[in-house]
Design goal:
The protein has one domain: Nucleotidyltransferase, domain 5 (2-Layer Sandwich). The two termini are 25 Å apart. It is built from six helices and five strands; from the N terminus they run αβββαβαβααα.
């Protein structure tokens, strides 16, 4: 549970702390996984072309996190959705400790909720999200990751994440 999460996650000074969620489409039939790193605001999108079962989410989140150096995959905070039933598999495969928000407390992943709002500019609610290919999602993520952010001193998430990637743990 989130109460057991290390205090370092709150300060955003130790990189490798991720927040995750699903954004869902029409009648909850389609979904895209979203992962955002708390220090850099770097976004990874998880392509879920079929159903968003626990197995599909496990495989997609694992694949996405494994693209990141080990020192940048310390924790992942998610809500208590059934799609994370295989969270132990994700943790084992990636070395990422998984924590869960309190029930009905999406603000405990506030950065991810904000990011999901930005993503709705590209993938509106009540639309079929399965029309977005993995390449489409990569383009959307690149757009968000190259958008300068005031909170980052007008640097981009990509610039900050690249610098963090270069650092050894």
């Amino acid at each position: 549970m989130i109460k057991d999460r290390p205090e370092e996650v709150e300060g955003r000074t130790v990189p490798g702390q991720w927040e995750g969620d699903l954004i869902v489409g029409t009648r909850n039939r389609t979904a895209v996984g979203t992962l955002v790193e708390r220090t850099s605001r770097f976004v990874l999108l998880v392509h879920l072309p079929g159903r968003h079962t626990a197995e599909a989410v496990r495989d997609g989140v694992t694949r996405a996190l494994l693209t990141v150096p080990p020192h940048l995959r310390r924790t992942l905070t998610w809500d208590q959705g059934v799609e994370m039933a295989h969270h132990r598999d994700i943790a084992e495969a990636t070395g990422t400790r998984v924590y869960f928000c309190d029930s009905g407390s999406p603000w405990q992943r506030g950065l991810n909720e904000n990011t999901n709002g930005l993503l709705r500019q590209y993938m509106p609610k009540s639309t079929n999200l399965s029309v977005h290919s993995a390449a489409d999602l990569a383009t959307i993520a690149a757009d968000l990751n190259t958008r300068p952010r005031k909170v980052l001193g007008w640097r981009t998430p990509l610039d900050v994440f690249t610098a963090l990637t270069a650092r050894a743990s």
